[in-house]
Amino acid sequence: MTSNLTSEEQAAAAAVERSAATSQLRFATAGSVDDGKSTLVGRLLHDSKSVLADQLEAVAHASRSRGQEAPDLALLTDGLRAEREQGITIDVAYRYFATPKRRFILADTPGHVQYTRNMVTGASTAELAVVLVDARNGVVEQTRRHAAVAALLRVPHVVLAVNKMDLVDYAEPVFAAIAEEFTTYAASLGVPGWGSEGNPQENWCTAIPISALAGDNVVTPSANMDWYGGPTVLEHLETVPVGTDPSQDPARFPVQYVIRPQTTEHPDYRGYAGQIASGVLRVGDAVTVLPSGRTSTITGIDALGAMVDVAWAPQSVTVTLADDLDISRGDLIAPSDHAPETTRDVEATVCHLHDRPLRVGDRVLLKHTTRTMKAIIKDIPSRLTLADLSHHPAPGELAANDIGRVVLRTSEPLALDAYEDSRRTGSFLLIDPADGTTLTAGMAGDSFAPSADGAEAARGDEGWNF
């Protein structure tokens, strides 16, 4: 089939095949307290043979010291001493593992309400969220909270893992009722692709009945639930689509470092290094540098020491331009025909992360990609109540874990995309200028607009896809 392809095309095809074989999925787990998140992660690592012998022995020893006969697999992820002593997850635990089909970066996030901000941290870069539900309790307030956070962060895929099915006699009606309730709620969150008819991502959520403790449908299919014909958790993680086509997104290149060697061999060289946030860059492209608005043309792209004609997200490259422009760290290079508008007035949905409240009039630093500037909180129009998706107007401040709307005024023009268009260039952080503490995570634009009436979502024919 490759006989009619040029050598360059064959090399590109081989690179695509290698990339597909070793693709990477970032995913996060979330759920209420004692829903079994850490046990699920431990089971996933154990049954996929991703645990070293000494790690397993350490877990077995810790389990015996607590009077447990069998190893408590939750201890594989609950690494803090306070977590092991209390049997809860406090901080985000990152784990790395791989199967022959895919590499994984896993963020095991806490279930307590006061640690919801930790889920925001873990899910902000995730391509999939695993939301656990205890089959005995069904969908609870914290389940709805985690679904809303996943919607807020535009996580592309969701797995509803209905855990502890062994404690409800593996009953299909219990699972079906929970899946239907969760889907109806999540479809009301108003995010395109989440259950919307005709959308290519209409199977946005895959519901899977599991028992993390017994291993049912985690890595191997369950013999106790022959009524379920869908994938196991690992099978779904290995096959869910990852990433997007870079050519479908406008190019965004935040400048991280300006390279000027000023050597005898390269007296006039000026290169701009960074990571492509989205889209594709090509030699010959007409580009605009923001916020100055100056224009030029790409004359060269250096990718890992090799000169190339084209590069795409998320490659790290050095770009050279035809004109000697005043460009520094924090500037954004974008195609002239698809450049974002600059503004000093920002409206955004935010999740407040710090124990100190965020108030109107606060002076902060705003960090967007590689650019940091001063800003002031002009208004906090509303705070979202996740229990019923209602908006509390003019709250005056946002406390830790609160999600709300803010209006900011920046000291300099900012090239900001809408978060719904780009998770990378539509997001920002608010930082305390006194000590550099991260205060708030922001998503530009109207990234979260729940529907008051909700929406019904139809069940798929196979695998409980909703």
Write the layout of secondary structure elements.
Layout: H1 7-21, E1 24-31, H2 37-47, H3 53-65, H4 81-86, E2 93-98, E3 103-108, H5 116-123, E4 128-134, H6 141-152, E5 157-163, H7 172-187, E6 205-209, H8 233-239, E7 253-254, E8 257-259, E9 271-275, E10 280-282, E11 286-290, E12 294-303, E13 306-308, E14 310-312, E15 316-321, E16 332-335, E17 342-352, E18 358-359, E19 363-368, E20 371-385, E21 390-393, E22 397-398, E23 403-415, E24 427-431, E25 438-444
Parallel strand pairs: 1-3, 1-4, 4-5, 5-6
Antiparallel strand pairs: 2-3, 7-16, 8-9, 9-15, 10-14, 11-12, 11-16, 12-13, 12-15, 17-23, 17-25, 18-22, 19-20, 19-24, 20-21, 20-23, 24-25
Descriptive account of the structure:
The structure is a single chain. The protein is an alpha+beta fold and 466 residues long. It has three domains: 21-239, Rossmann fold; 247-338, Translation factors (Elongation Factor Tu (Ef-tu), domain 3), CATH 2.40.30; 342-444, Translation factors (Elongation Factor Tu (Ef-tu), domain 3, Beta Barrel). Helices cover 19% and strands 32% of the residues. It is built from eight helices and 25 strands. The strands form five sheets. Strands 7, 8, 9, 11, 12, 13, 15 and 16 form an eight-stranded antiparallel sheet that branches. A six-stranded mixed sheet has the order 2-3-1-4-5-6, with helices on both faces. A hairpin with a 4-residue loop joins strand 20 (371-385) and strand 21. It starts with 6 loop residues before the first helix and ends in a 22-residue tail after the last strand. Residues 5-21, 80-90, 195-202 and 451-466 have low confidence and may be disordered. InterPro entries: CysN_GTP-bd, CysN_II, CysN_NoDQ_III, G_TR_CS, GTP-eEF1A_C, SO4_adenylTrfase_lsu, T_Tr_GTP-bd_dom, TRAFAC_GTPase_members.
